[in-house]
Amino acid sequence: MIQSRRNFVKTGASSLVCASALMGNTSLHASIRKFPLGLQLYSVREFLPKDYAGTLKEIGELGYEEVESAGYYDHSVAEVQQALSAAGLKLVSAHFGYDALSKDFDRILDFHHRLGVGHIVCASPGYAPTHSKSAKGLTLDDWRWNADQFNNFGEKVSAAGMKFGYHNHIAEFHVTDGVLPFGELMRLTDPAKVSFEMDCGWVIVGGGKPVEMLEKYPTRIVMLHVKDFNLAEKNAEGEPKVEEMGLGSVDYRPIFEAASKTGHIEHVFVEQEAFTVPWRQSLKIDADYMHKIGAA
């Protein structure tokens, strides 16, 4: 079950604050709650197919405690459980695109029920049957149709004892026909059936503000993705250059302060869309940053 997410973000940095100040003044993160250090396994999508158990073991050795899946590469429930156990990792959430969920929902639900996963997350929306091929991107009607689909998914996932959520990218923060799609999804989805996993990095790239979203929807956002970009430098696709956390433009301290205040954030996942250094070094930089600001 390999889920289809978004296209890979392909591959300076502006400093945030000196490390000595962060380490020496604990009051800087006195209001930040510590979360189990989590990783979205999309980060290591190139390595899991080659050595699933070995890659997970190395992630555990870097200090990560929780993971969110983005594919199992033909491994059975028992094989996944064995690899996770050997690595000392807990699988708490799983990502799938809308197409995979709509075509293979029952098998996905059964697989994750047996794994003991708490959250099933839709990581990319679908197009409504009425979508016009001439339209550039999703229309407002598409977003409203997705909200209905998410309510349906959420009802079934809830009945199986799990939670259903939606993960944003950047389109949710591009005003469409005078409406912000992220707000429309919030308005039209049932809070009892649909939660949200806010990808803070993509919110910022899309033009939104994570702190404002956490303050406006404190009970709806229950998981976070964290990543960093150099917002002043663009890649070939016109998107900001990926950086390791703490080496780009995003200061996560105010975001975690806001997240801590809501009291509803259950899990936080580092997601490294691309590496500027060898992957183990990259994920260690991310982990060190999370510890440094007091979020892990």
Average pLDDT level: 91
Q: In the residues, how many domains can be counted?
A: 1
Number of helices: 10
CATH architecture annotation name? Alpha-Beta Barrel
- How many strands in all? 10
Instruction: Summarize the biggest pleated sheet.
Output: 8 strands, parallel, barrel
Helix fraction?
A: 25-40%
Euclidean distance between termini CA atoms: 30 Å
Shape: globular
SSE arrangement, N to C? HEHEHEHEHEHEHHEEEHEH
What are the low-pLDDT stretches, counting only 5+ consecutive residues below 50?
1-29
Strand content: 15-25%
Explain what this protein looks like in three dimensions.
The protein is an alpha/beta fold and 296 residues long. The protein has a single domain, classed as TIM Barrel (Alpha-Beta Barrel), CATH 3.20.20.150. It has ten helices and ten strands. Strands 1-2-3-4-5-6-7-10 form an eight-stranded parallel barrel, surrounded by five helices. Strands 8-9 form a two-stranded antiparallel ribbon. Helix 5 links the parallel strand 4 and strand 5. The longest helix has 20 residues. The two termini are 30 Å apart. The N terminus is likely disordered.
